[in-house]
Amino acid sequence: MRLYHHPMSSNARRATMTALQLGTDVELVFVDLAKGEHKKPDFLRLNPGGKVPVLEDGDFALTESHAIMQYLCDKTPGQTLYPTELRARADVNRWLFWNAAHFQSSVAILNWEHVVKRFLNLGDPDPAAVQKGEGLVRDLGKLLDDHLAGKTWISGDALTLADLAIATPLDALDRAKLPVRDFTNVMSWLGRVQALDAWKKTGM
User: Fold this and answer.
1) Which CATH number fits domain 2-74: 3.40.50.720, 3.20.20.70, 3.60.15.10, 3.40.30.10?
2) pTM for the model
């Protein structure tokens, strides 16, 4: 298997973290986004959307980071990141969808305004967009903080895909000026994820 990634992509990072946490025998293929390698014909044949990550397993190419995480787990006998019991798996799925539909996209607003625009020389942050992003991230952060009260991990008593998925956008905590540092439960939980070898070996 090959996993195409870039360490600055939180989407790619959650997939690479999953592979490392599972001990999956996968070749990590660096895609140089700055050089536009994700827009070249060979890559677009794998993902016409031109984004990382992409998992290539024989003649099967899979996009979307959360789907890749699930696929890697389903190929790993005895894994515990993605529970097989119906309700436990449904709860993990609930948080994966929450991240994909709400949290990641809200963080992306602030990441775009504070990080990407500066990197691409697109001007100063838009105050209205920043205000919107801060409000969304703060509200969602409060929801997560309340949920984590008295808990070590997001779903159940053990580390799951929910933790890996939701932690990766928070890598931009300082760069994107994410307003979550006052949420003590979130910050304690994030520290536990950041202590994992899979976290330390990924990202930039």
Assistant:
1) 3.40.30.10
2) 0.95
